[in-house]
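for the record, two folds in this file. i put them one after another cuz i was lazy. first one right below, seq on top, structure tokens after. the second one comes after a little note so u can tell where it starts
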Amino acid sequence: MDTRLPTLELLERSIDERKNLEQCLQSLRSISKRVEELTDRILALYSFPDLPDEPVSKQSFIWPKTAILPSAKALSGNYFDYEKGVLSFLGYRVGYSGISLKNRRAVLSYAYHERLPSVVSTEYMAEWSEPETAVRLKKIADSLAAFARNGRRNEKQDMSEAVNHWVTDLAWLKTEYYDGHYDSKFAWPNQK
């Protein structure tokens, strides 16, 4: 362990006392870089199940819808186990306390392009397939669309900001990865 880096507690105290702020910022940047390096090392240690090559029939898919029927009611309880999901594990958060647009897109890009850690069961991870495949993109898109639909159904709390983020991110994914790549056999579904 690198003992040359100051502890977060010491940095916090210096910030509170408004002492050596430039040095604190440099230290925090060093710590952040080191955390990213260690995170990458940890993620590399996770195993991803060997999956068969993607069949040609799965090279195209219909983009998911986020619209709900007007009569739909909120699902009771916590329908998704956000604590254990891949996107959540990678740091994807939406809503008022979520991460920035830039960071959400970075997480979604990582989820599409990179090898994922096994965060739940082998069966669940198999649904995510291999990086840069239609199956992987479909899983991400289906997840965001489902989050948006269930957020719209939620009558107990205001999910409008989160829903807006999910829908915006879904539209960005479509433009970035789906259009011109996986849409050759299917028309874009109506979102309304």
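(here's the note) second protein begins now
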Amino acid sequence: MNREIDNKTILDKFAEKFCEIIERHTKYFICSGFTAIAHGRTRGTEDIDMIIEKIPIEKFIQLHKELIREEFECIQSDNPEVLFENYLNTGLSIRYVQAGKNFAPPEMEVKFAKGELDKEQLKTRKRYPMTSLNIYFSPIEATIAFKEESLKSQKDLDDARHLRLIYQIDEGEIKRIKREIRKIKR
């Protein structure tokens, strides 16, 4: 009898399955709140934020079709051309959920990378053994910088504080990223 305990949550399993499919088609990283949750912070979320490398429409159509075959569905549309042209290509996100769940959480919010900071994070993305998840995250310093400099809600500041407690942080890197964020905001 196998008595191995599976400590992964529904959110963890959803993220791993989705990321496994994405990885077959393009580079990605997970950012924002799920990063803190995956590192042990106790709080709820309904969505996971994902940035993917910008890909041509033909490649996106293949990716979308595989997601559908693997029992995901997109909230905005079933038509991959509409999703690509009206959402991703215009800087908007699209959201996928598990098929047949009446659009119930969890959701994967997917956006194309834009700007140098997103491209840099695609190059420096990391798997963190502490999470026991086989997925790529943005670097911890980038997550902290965005939460402290751009998002700034109490939830985001608490996420950043949690990540600071469990990692040795490169404060110089956080300051550099915050400067880049301020340039973008101008």
